[in-house]
Q: What sequence folds into this?
DNA sequence: GACCAGGCACATC
DNA sequence: GATGTGCATGGT
């Protein structure tokens, strides 16, 4: 897939001038961002906000506290974010990783080499490519581009890349062409989410539909 | 009531 | 490697 630096910057400029700076990720600390990254998996952000508010009002939004409380308690607190049993296990897995390797400190975790840390995060049960990269970029300010379903929809509908291309192919599009700039990656991904929410609904468009070009 | 939301692991072919 | 499925709440 060939797409030039100018094209990617042009897309960025159009989105940025339309929406303005997004200042992502919403969250008061790197740890909160990491928790949010897990909770928002296939879930509306407003639901995640409710779950995080529950954790905050219970004074439990810390690695130590969330690690120590029973899973049933954690599940009841994050219930509004959906998939609460699955996400409880995923949070517990991340917390065990964070507590075990870095004493619960995101700052200490951040000192790891980015590539190595990404590999380690992907080994945590429940953390896949997007969640790992969201943590790296938005919690730790690492130079990693985050790919999500909106990125796929927007780019594929503008015929820049096939919707079903792999996560790595999408990511390489940006890593190979753009300067490694965490600030740029931060805003760019957030802008994809914005324009995706507003203009790239899942329907009407099916990959195999003979009329799919009609909607492009 | 249907559809959607800032994925992931797992089973099966 | 590609495809299908379960997981669950809350807003539109």
A:
């Amino acid at each position: 897939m060939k797409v030039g630096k100018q094209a990617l910057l042009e897309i960025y400029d159009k989105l940025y001038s339309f929406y303005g700076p997004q200042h992502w990720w919403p969250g008061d600390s790197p740890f909160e961002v990491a928790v949010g990254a897990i909770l928002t998996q296939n879930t509306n952000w407003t639901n995640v906000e409710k779950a995080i508010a529950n954790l905050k009002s219970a004074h439990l939004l810390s690695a130590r506290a969330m690690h120590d409380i029973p899973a049933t308690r954690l599940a009841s607190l994050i219930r509004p974010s959906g998939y609460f049993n699955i996400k409880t296990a995923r949070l517990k897995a991340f917390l065990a990783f964070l507590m075990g390797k870095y004493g619960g400190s995101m700052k200490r975790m951040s000192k790891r080499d980015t590539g190595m840390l990404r590999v380690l995060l992907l080994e945590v049960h429940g953390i896949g490519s997007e969640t790992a990269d969201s943590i790296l970029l938005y919690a730790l300010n690492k130079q990693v581009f985050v790919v999500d379903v909106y990125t796929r929809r927007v780019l594929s509908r503008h015929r820049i890349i096939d919707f079903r291309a792999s996560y790595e192919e999408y990511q390489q599009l940006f890593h190979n062409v753009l300067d490694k700039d965490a600030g740029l990656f931060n805003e760019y991904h957030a802008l994809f989410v914005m324009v995706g929410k507003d203009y790239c609904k899942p329907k009407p468009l099916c990959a195999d539909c003979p009329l799919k070009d009609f909607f492009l």
Summary: Residues 5-23+144-199 of chain A form one domain. Residues 42-44, 46-47, 50-51, 79-87, 164 of chain A lie near DNA strand C (CB under 10 Å from a C1').
